[in-house]
UniProtKB/TrEMBL annotation, chain A:
Entries under SUPFAM superfamilies matching the protein: MetI-like
Transmembrane segments: 71-100, 112-132, 144-164, 185-210, 264-281
Chief location of this protein within or outside the cell: membrane
Membership in a protein family: Belongs to the binding-protein-dependent transport system permease family.
Naturally occurring in which organism (per UniProt): Cohnella fermenti
CDD domains: TM_PBP2
Identification of the protein by name: Carbohydrate ABC transporter permease
InterPro entries noted in UniProt: MetI-like, MetI-like_sf
From TrEMBL, chain B:
The protein's name: Sugar ABC transporter permease
Keywords linked to the UniProt accession: Cell membrane, Membrane, Transmembrane, Transmembrane helix, Transport
Record membrane topology: Multi-pass membrane protein
Gene3D superfamilies per the UniProt record, alphabetical: MetI-like
Domain ABC transmembrane type-1: 69-283
Signal peptide: none
Amino acid sequence: MKRPFALGGTLFRTANHLFLVLLSLACVLPIVHVLAVSLSAQTAVSAGEVLFRPVDFTVQSFDFVVHKPEFFVAMSVTLKRVALGLSLNMLLTMLVAYPLSKRVGQFKLRTGYAWFFVATMLFHGGLIPTFLTVKYTGIMDSVWSLVLPGAVPVFNVVLLLNFFRNLPHALEEAAIVDGAGVWTCLWRIYVPLSLPALATISLFTVVGHWNAWFDGLIYMNSLNHYPLSSYLQTVIIQQDLSRSAVTQDEIELYMNVSAKTIKSAQTFVGMLPILLVYPFLQRYFVKGIVMGSVKE
Amino acid sequence: MGRLKREFPYHLMILPGVLFVLLYSYVPMAGLVIAFQNFVPVLGFSKSSWAGFDNFVYIYHLPSVGQVLWNTLFIAVMKIAAGLLVPIAVALLLNELRLVAFKRTVQTLIYLPHFLSWVILAGILSDVLSLDGIVNRLVTAFGGEPIYFLGDSRIFPFTLVASDVWKEFGFATIVYLAALTGIDPSLYEAARIDGANRWRQTLYVTLPGIVPIIILMATLSLGNVLNAGFDQVFNLYNPSVYSTGDIIDTMIYRVGLQQSQFSVSTALGLFKSFVSFALISISYILAYRFANYRIF
């Protein structure tokens, strides 16, 4: 739609474009800077020569990061966590959302069940009671402690149940007349019809499990069981040098790295998968964002 | 009898989800009783002695608790205000763009930080905001003194608010942009015929068009008054900024898991959960009343 601009419109338009370009740069340049540092020689970095382009290009920092045995262990824990978490989360989301999407006439207790789940978004046991529950159920220090406590993502359940509700009822009614049961209706009608929604929720679930770091930090007793995000938290934020320090043998192998270039490389590795998938996450339900505005 | 048989598959379907939520959400809620005990892990819930409200009295008399509560409120309320205003302003500016490709690009770039975890972002910010980081290079280039964003306790809360807005504003614009596309174009036409320029159109057509969603988002954000953002603070703070940067959630963590005062930590958590629950409930009731918003 074309709207005529009043006098001064050109000025406003130019300023607006400029402002939005600067805003976009403010979101991207810090990341570009980190990448540039990670790909530069440490001498150039400590001399403050690196801005948004690598100086004396080298991949030694990345080489160093991925050749740490801890890195591979942590990566494998994360992959296991993502695989288990994604399957369990998606399965339970569908199994819970479908009955809840029924009307009271079809499933009398649906409102009661719905409140049973939604209540957990409003009120929590909190850190210590949850920690103790994980401990007493014997899943401490295993990948299950990262997957089972959040097995039912209530937020996604609500998204999917609202999506299910907006699908035409006639399809299911026709299937029931033809003798289809409840399970058939879910797997053969509702799931195929909501593939785009399910794909979006799946991507968010993967990002969520990839990013989660706190549960690994508190539920894992040994550092070898940390998922990648928790491992990165200890090396990037806590700067636990025992885990990332350059040993005597490595000094000769990696002449171009410093603590700062290593940290940058680790940071970049930690966000790489997200940089690759996030453009596909834009098609999100507005309702979901409104709901997500309450953080707890 | 017929109904029970007909609805039985729904109950069966929802059962696994119910069990997980019962175990990992409701059992911890029951575990809140340790806030009223002198809980000792080896004795368990049943054998630990009762403390009445002693833990709450103890917290009330802690010298730091008033400051922590104030920090939490100050940071959270500033985040809520900035987190509402900035996305609205950016959405209005984006709405003025006519080149779709440019608008898309800007949107894609400003969403990016939302998907990265605070571990990664803290890794980036600790570099970018350091004394010789790129932000301070910009500050000094304009003749200013370098600012210690993460180490100066007077500045730290504002660093938290600004970086939180930086992370979330792009994603939060989605809601407002969706509302903006829903405004009837004929209203603009009518306003133009009445002689309204772009500014007046914004004031009298665009803004009133998104007022309902603004009210909804403002109402729902009420539930975040005690959420100053654990992930962010935990990864960015250090002892030199505890005086202004320590919040309830980080205190719960330190008291509970670092000092192992399980009951005290739980009592503090219960206080927070209780107040948050009241606030979220009020916000949902208000949202339902004034914006006809329903969760499910």
